[in-house]
Amino acid sequence: LATDVAPVARPDDDALREAQKSLELAPDNRDALWLTAQCYFAKGEYEKSRDCATRGIKLYPRTIDMYTALADIELRSGNRAAAIAALQQGLKATERNPQLLWSMANLLMDVNKLKEAEPIIEELRATEYPKQFVEYLNARREFIQGHWLAARQGFEKVRGLLTTWPGLLKQVDVWIGQCY
């Protein structure tokens, strides 16, 4: 799931210790909770990561990144239903934040729930969310439906606009290749 804040890539033990120390000094600090959740997540300690994200949501229910972090944790733990539930909770708490709408539409398409994703894509279209991401979702929809030419054209249209999102760009390239 995409967030506006880059995730912690591969924290070493020192980074995790520093995050834990910051959490000890300020156990209710939003940034310390998020950073510690990300460090635990990167190290595969999903229960501890989940605890930090859940605590962050309880203390800061309008913090979007906490919901995307929790959804990522649940996905990595193999619990797609819990990931969807985390995003649904976030959508309620944040008055249907566009970033969470985008994450939800992507996740629903990942689990073959296109019918549920379609109204979310249309809702997102009516927001100020960057249009290249909405067009990306449309191309994914065409891909899932087997409309290879429309999907390829959609992916090629947004490809150049996603250069600052290397993970997304790589996936677009894979899907473009699969359209042939």
Structural features:
single chain, 180 residues, mainly alpha, 0% strand, disordered N terminus
Q: Secondary-structure blueprint of this entry?
A:
Blueprint: H1 13-25, H2 30-42, H3 46-59, H4 64-76, H5 80-93, H6 98-110, H7 114-125, H8 131-144, H9 148-159, H10 166-178
Helix pairs in contact: 1-2, 2-3, 2-4, 3-4, 4-5, 5-6, 6-7, 6-8, 7-8, 8-9, 9-10
Molecular structure report:
73% of the residues lie in helices and 0% in strands. By secondary structure, the chain is an all-alpha fold. The chain is elongated and about 55 Å long.
Quaternary state reads single chain
Percent of residues in β-strands = under 5%
Number of helices: 10
Question: Largest sheet, described in full?
Answer: none
Number of strands: 0
Q: SS-based structural class?
A: mainly alpha
Helix-residue proportion? over 70%
Mean pLDDT: 93
Instruction: Give the termini separation.
Output: 26 Å
**Would you identify the regions where 5 or more consecutive residues have pLDDT less than 50?**
2-6
User: What is the radius of gyration?
Assistant: 17 Å
Order of helices and strands: HHHHHHHHHH
Given the C-alpha coordinates, what overall shape results?
Answer: elongated
